[in-house]
Amino acid sequence: MDLVSYYYIIENIKDYPDYEFIARHDCGYWPLSAEIIDKTKGLLRIPRDGCAPYFMNTSICVIRAVDFNKPNFQVNPKKYIKKNPYIIFSNVHGLQNGYIKNHNLHHVNFYLKVESITDNFLTISGVKVVNYYHDGNTSEMLSPEKDAYFKNIGIFAVKAEPNKNSKMQKVYSDNLSDSNGTKNNSLEINESRIISNTSLNTWFFGLPLMAILIISFILLRKRKEH
Amino acid sequence: MSFLSHLVVALAATIFIEFFVYLAFICKKPIELLLFSILINSFTNPILNYFYNFEFCELYSLEILVTLIEGILIMLLMEIRYYRAMFISLAANLTSLLIGIIVFG
Description:
heterodimer; A: alpha+beta; 10 strands; B: mainly alpha; 87% helix; 0% strand
């Protein structure tokens, strides 16, 4: 199987000078490293070291520049991301290097766009996917193939990752309703993202619930038998 | 590979690793032990992953908690003594953790 490099380019990263964009690289669900995304190009490469390519996945998050302590980040990026209440997570999880059997393909560029950054959530959308071939030709991937690619790299509705201790979380809660009790539109979008994330909710809560019910049933039967 | 796929692979791997550890200690009724491994890990693994990935709890603290919970479930389901159940749970979770570290880095 040939590994073809995937490059991720955030097209409008320069429109957000007040934020630092950070890529967090995980191997499976083990955090590996984190890096600041270069704001001049908005280019993100997925590392190939330290993890089987199949398990490597990367997520994107941001932090306000004023809240960002670069020296601390550089000392221990993984810890800095994990423990920082100011980190704003995004819908993008699972950016990967590719596995494509097409030997003519040299690399693939995924063009992404920041849609919005709220106090609680960074929303990123997919713009286009361009294939670059060894012979110098390029081709743009069309829907639905393009949509499937974006879905594979995580650009679909997922739950935000609010930290309960986060100041952002408090702001989010405070702003859910305005003084008239009507919801802020941008936050309503985030709320719908959380609700629509049924598969993860089923996994994290439905499966354990089902398991403990069956365990309880078995234990009750054992007790009756005795 | 999506986030959910990673979770499924991690759970399947944990179920099989812990099943073989149960089998090594208990040496009888393998089908029943496999069922218990599926049930116990289907209960603890998603919860561990939720707290690890979304609440950013320390992995080792979570593993200790999971070991205690699994020890109690092993004691009740397999009808063995508390200390033996805890030992089996500790061995199973250490094995799956070590294999996880070796495989995932």
